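C-alpha cells please, single chain.
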Amino acid sequence: MDKLQQHTINRDEPVISIKGLHKSFADLQVLNGIDFTLYKGENVAILGKSGTGKSVLIKIIVGLLKPDKGEVIALGKQVDRLNQKELDALRLRIGFSFQSSALYDGLNVYQNLAFPLTMNQKNISKKELNIAVERILDAVGLKDKMKQMPSDLSGGQRKRIGIARTLILKPEIMLYDEPTAGLDPITSADIIQLINEVQQRFNTSSIIITHDLTCAKNTSDRTAMLLDGKFAKVGTFEEVFNTDDEHLKEFYNYNFIQD
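Here you go.
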C-alpha cells in the first residue's frame, strides 16, 4: 500500500505555524516547546503514545484550549487572540474528524450531512442541499446509504460519514483524530485510502493524529514523533524510524506494521 503522490505541496505557504508552544495541567507538563509548520496541500501524521499530548495540541490549534506560552497561527490568524466570532469563522475553515465519528443517532445519513450546511448557510435551497449531500456521499463512496440511520452502518461506514460531514463545509485544513482506531485491517486500509483521496480531490492540508504506524506511513508526507512534550523527530516516515534512538525504535517495534 503506497501513498499516492499526485498532489502538490506548497512549502512557501504555511497553513499552520506553531512556535515555542507550552501547555501544562497543574504540575503535569504536556507540551514542552513545540515548533511545527504544516504546509498547504500536505498531510502530516503526528505519532505518540497515549497521554503524550497529541489531542491537546489539536485542541489548541482550534482554540478549545489556550497555550500557556507560545504562538499558534492557523490560516493567518493567531488563534489565542481571536474573539468568539472570529474563532467560529476560523473553525468553519478547519474540519475536525472525531475518533467517534460524532454522528447524531436520531438523524439519518442525509440529515446528518445536511445539518452543518443548514446551520451555516441559512439561505441554502433544498436543491443546493441535495446536490451537496449527494456529491459528498459520492466522494466517500456511500451514496446508497443516504436514508440509513447511523446504527445501521458498520464502523468503517460511520467513519466515512463522519469525514463526509466534515468535508461538506469545504474546509481548507482537515484534522483527523485516530481515524483508524477500533477498525479491522481491511476497513483501516479503506480509511487510509479515503484520507489520501480527500487530500488529492479537495486539496486539503491535514494533520493525522494516530498511534497506528500503518496509517502514518501510508497517509503522511511527513511524520512527527511526539515524545516528552516535544517533537523528537520530524521527517518522512522512513527518516523518523531509520534511527538509533531507543525511544523511537521501541515505539516502532511495539506497534506491528504491515507493508
